[in-house]
Amino acid sequence: MKKQIVKEFITVKKVRYLPREEPPPPPPPPRRVLIVGRCTLDVINICNEQPKPGIIERTDEGFWRLGGYAPNTCCVLRRLGTTCEFLGQLTKVPAFESLTNSFQAMGIEISNCPRTNQQPPHRIIVAVRGKAQQSTVEYTNHSHELTYQQFVGAVDYRQYCWIHFELRKTGETIRMVRAVRAYNERSPDAYIVLSVDLADMKPQSCLMAALADYVLIRKQLKVDNGYMNGRETVWAVRDVMDVARRRWQSKQPKKSPYITEEIPELDPVTCRKITSHQPIIIYNNYEEGASCLMPDGKYFKVGPHKPQKIVDAIGEEETFVGAFIYAMQGDKMSMRDAIEYATRAACFKVSIYGFDQMRCMPKDLVACYHA
Fold this sequence. Notes:
alpha/beta, UDP-N-acetylmuramoyl-L-alanine:D-glutamate ligase, four-stranded mixed β-sheet, Ketohexokinase-related, Carbohydrate kinase PfkB domain-containing protein, ketohexokinase activity, Ribokinase-like
């Protein structure tokens, strides 16, 4: 009995392998750029001169492709090497599967896009060969636009570092912009940069632009309102934005604070002074030079650029926007360098067909000077 007890106590359990250490958690995936807008089917005809009414004009050059302001911006970002996502309504009609295939071929994320059974919006573009002139006939309606409920249901804010909005259906877009701003207030460490496209001077459009960090003005806005140059354009947009903001604030119900007997001391960290938000306003025009108005009122302008030959001017403004986002988000350039790079990219775009050759664009400003 004694020997048996001793034998049990001196038995040692052999351990062959030590337990493995738990692997470290994988790093979070890099945040990407989100472009919100509308996808169209572009039918492009290139003529020697603008067609005259009542006359049949024949041409031997024409094609159709994926189009629209937001998809073209995504194309530029992908050609420059930036991971991006498009968010907008896509069609499930089999005849238009090529639009979805074009997104997938370029590596643009579209998994969160809502699908519809109606035909997509389309544009007929008549461009003049060798000139930056084009006429566009566009078919679209409000059913093709992304709604606020679809946006909120599809977007996970933690995945994005920059969101750019195309100006479509302004009432819905304002709610989307405010939703992103509310997230930025809740999560300042994961701040999302907001930029919007401004195509007109309507009060509601300017109110939406006042909520963003960057406002990118189209060239046609200057022509429609009769402004003389880029400096006058950016200052006029700033004034209209301020008027729209004050008018909206005057219509809001006034808050009546609860007055306590003892007034507590204000914490300077949590109770900060409320200041009016002023976005950076940029007017893009490679022929005249891009203009920029900073929030503190400082204005500067980059030099103009002239292409050797105009081949395809369709998508020039989208190229400026995509190159600017790439320069600010990817390469972390300064404001002046980013606008200079975007201006050179727009000038390079009009000298090539489509967006495929944008991958030949130098990826930094220094290489642009040696190209």
